[in-house]
Amino acid sequence: MYDVIVIGSGVTGYAAAMYAARLDLSVVVIGDVEGGTITETNEVANYPGFVMLTGTELSQKLKQHALDYPVDLETGNVTDVFRCEQDCFYVVTDKKTFLGKTLIFATGMRERELNVPGHDELRNRGVSYCALCDAPLFKDKTVAVVGGSDAAAKEALLLAKYCPKVYIIYRKKKIRPEPINAERVEKENRIEVINETNVTEILGENRVTGVKLDHPYNGSDTLSLDGVFIAIGGIPRSELAKKLGIETNDKGEILIDRSSRTNVEGVFAAGDVVNTEFKQAITGVGEGVHAAYQAYRFVNEHDFVFTCQQDDE
Questions:
Q1: Which of 29, 155, 257, 299 satisfies CB 3.0 to 4.6 Å to 6 for a cystine?
Q2: pLDDT, average across residues 257-278
């Protein structure tokens, strides 16, 4: 029986686990992808205390800090979460079952897919969601990034180190990265922005050969490409939380207060899965710390009478 079960092994989950263990709570972190999505980021330059490091390096630093305390790490896909008569939580993975007094959801987001013809057929055949993973495969090729966020700009900047031509295709009037990355995109002569345009189809048979656009560009509604990188945001991984009756907004984000508490007693949430407007590694880490402290208070302010028993089979 753990005092705290953290679901999600990204930087938010590691921070929550570290702080909970520091408060002398027994903690397990369960996640299917070690390090979370930040490991797909090549450059992190906005985490206080570090001028520049990779997402993987930042994740490893937080993981090692957590492991300075007696934190258990478990790799597995959580398939079910439920509560037994208000006295404990069951967390079921594809390998085993865990019992906890409190839960912290740090489950993050999954990529929002581009729902157009050709996407599914050409995924991993020129369609990618990770420039850090795949950019070297497109050296000396022409590629496009679909999206206009800061993440899209960073994908394009990384791709420009390998590719002579990188398009950013965005549906609105102006891309919206952080000012420093907007300036970098503007100065990079290998990047060209196509605004107020949508990709309506990804073309190719065995490999990507181009895309169709809903507005002509340079007189044509077809743009020849060797690769398409999708960066159109994410979908909160809140399905398990909803099973517990945790409230979410119309985007599927878990609703929390300023102390990372949900509407269900004993359940807390932090990071990209919650309804905070500004989502960054540092804000998720802060929310994770809040969640850990509130879990500490909850455990110490409640008398637990356990009527549930874990099935060892």
A1: 29
A2: 96
